[in-house]
Design goal:
Number of helices: 2
Radius of gyration: 21 Å
Distance between the termini: 62 Å
CATH class of the largest domain: Alpha Beta
Helix content: 10-25%
Structural class: alpha+beta
Strand order of the largest sheet: 11-12-7-13
Largest sheet: 4 strands, antiparallel
Mean pLDDT: 93
CATH superfamily of the largest domain: Ribosomal protein L6
Oligomer: single chain
Order of helices and strands: EEEEEEHEEEEEEHE
Number of domains: 2
CATH topology of the largest domain: Outer Surface Protein A, domain 3
Strand content: 35-45%
Number of strands: 13
Shape: elongated
C-alpha cells in the first residue's frame, strides 16, 4: 500500500473543504482551489480530515493514490500559508520592475521584456535584482517562476541571467591563452 496515500490529510481550522462528484473545492484565507479527482480514487471527508483510498493494487491505482493525496495536501497548504519562489537577476544593467499585472525586465537584449502574469499570482520586486512570485497554487507559482527564468537562463561562463535564489551555477573555465 502507498505510504503517502494511506496517510489522512488533516484539515486545519479556517479551511472549508467540499467534495462533490469527483470535484474537491478548498477555500481558505489565501484563496480558493479546485481539483478534479481521477474516477478510480475514492475520497472520504470527515470533520477534520480527508482520506484517499484506491479500489485495487494495480500499478496505475497505486500511483494515482499517492498523487491524489499529495495534490490535496498541497492545496490545503496553499490556501493556508501560500507558496513563494524568489528569483535573482545577475548581470550588469539587468533589472526588473512591476507595473500592475505586468513584469518589465531589462536583460541585456535590445528591447525590454514584458511578462503578464496571471491574476491569481502576486509578483513583487523588493529591489531591482530580486523578483518574488507568490500565490496559493503550487503548480502555478512554479510555472510562473520557470517562465520568468526562461527569458534569460543563467549561463555558465559569467553567471549572468535569471536564477532561483540559492541556485548553484556550475561555472566553466573560459578560453586560456597558451
Amino acid at each position: 500500500m502507498s505510504r503517502i496515500g494511506r496517510k489522512p490529510v488533516e484539515i486545519p481550522s479556517g479551511v472549508k473543504v467540499t467534495v462533490n462528484n469527483r470535484k474537491v473545492h478548498i477555500e481558505g484565507p489565501k484563496g480558493k482551489l479546485d481539483l478534479s479527482v481521477h474516477p478510480r480514487m475514492k475520497l472520504e471527508l470527515s470533520e477534520k480530515e480527508i482520506t484517499v483510498s484506491r479500489p485495487t493494487d494495480i500499478r496505475t491505482d497505486r500511483s494515482l493514490h499517492g498523487l491524489t493525496r499529495s495534490l490535496i495536501q498541497n492545496m490545503i497548504i496553499g490556501v493556508c500559508k501560500g507558496y513563494q519562489k524568489e528569483l535573482e537577476i545577475v548581470g550588469v544593467g539587468f533589472k526588473a520592475a512591476v507595473k500592475g499585472n505586468m513584469l518589465t525586465m531589462s536583460l541585456g537584449y535590445s528591447h525590454q521584456i514584458e511578462y503578464e502574469f496571471p491574476k491569481d499570482i502576486t509578483v513583487v520586486c523588493p529591489n531591482q535584482t530580486r523578483v518574488a512570485v507568490s500565490g496559493c497554487d503550487k503548480k502555478m507559482v512554479g510555472q510562473v517562476a520557470a517562465d520568468i527564468r526562461r527569458f534569460h537562463k543563467p549561463e555558465p561562463y559569467k553567471g549572468k541571467g535569471v536564477m532561483y535564489v540559492g541556485e548553484q551555477i556550475r561555472r566553466k573555465q573560459g578560453k586560456t591563452v597558451g
